[in-house]
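Anyone opening a protein record will find just a pair of labelled lines. A complete record is shown below as an example:
=====
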Amino acid sequence: MEKILVVGAGFMGSGIAQVSAHAGYQVHLVDISASIMEKALRNIRWSMEKLEEKGLLNDPAEKVLGRISLEEDLSCASRVDWVIEAVLEEEEVKRRIFRELDRVAPKETPLATNTSTIPVTRLAENTSRPERVLGLHFFGPVPLMGLVEVVKGEKTSQDVFARGIAFVRSLGKIPVQVKRDIPGFVMNRIFSAAFREAVDLVDQGIVTPEDVDVGMRLGYGWNAGPFEIADNAGLDTVARVGQTMKALGAGHLAPGSDLIERMVAKGHLGRKTRRGFYRYSPDGKRLPSA
C-alpha cells in the first residue's frame, strides 16, 4: 500500500487525507496544532459515516479511518511515497516547509503543493529536486469536488507530471493538465475574472449578491454562484488569493473594490463565521435573506 503524507490538517488538508484513505492509501497527517488534527479526524469520521449511510463507501468507515494516522512532525516524510503540502496560502510558510521536506524525504519522492495561486516553480526553488515538485490543486470541499489541477512547474519532469495525473485519477478525480506554470493556474484565473466584475458591480450598488448568484446558476449553468463559492471558501482566503495575484503581477484579476477586505475586517468570513455575503445557522445551513 502506497503511503502519503499530507501537511496541513485544515479544510483542504483533511479533505485530501480523507479521499486518499478512501482510495486505499495509507495516510500520514501532520499539522503544527494537535487540536486542528483532532478536529480534522472528527470531521473526517463524520463525513465517512455519512457516506457509509448512503452506501457510497467500498469499505466500512472504520476501516478507511484506520488508514489515517496523526503525526507529530515532518520526520515521517522519510517513509512515504508522496507528499502533499496543504497549508495556508502564505508563500514564506510554504517555502519553509518545502526546505524541510527536501531535507527529510527520499530524493525520489514527489513533493506536491495544493497552492491555488503561487507558481509551483517558486516553491520548487526551495528544494534540490525541482524536477520532482508539482502542483496538485484540489478544489474544496475535496470529498465532493471531482476536479484537481495538475500543474507542471518549469522544471517538473514529464514522468512526475504523468505520475501526478495518474495519482489524481486513482482518487476518482478528474485531472486538468496545466502545462505552463502561471499565477492562479487556469480555473482560479477564469473564476477570478468573473468574481472581480461581480464584486465591483455589487459594491457599486448595481446588483445584489443573491441576484448575481441566481443569474449565474440559471443563466450560465453554474452549480453555485460566485458569492456562494466565496462564502464556502472563506472570504479571508479569497482576500489572500487576491493579494497574492497582485503581488505576482496578475492584479488585473483581483477586484478593484475593497469590499472583500472590508468584510474580512468586520470578521464576516463566510460560512465558517456564520456571516459573509449570506448568513448561516450554527450547523452551516444558509439562512433566508433578512
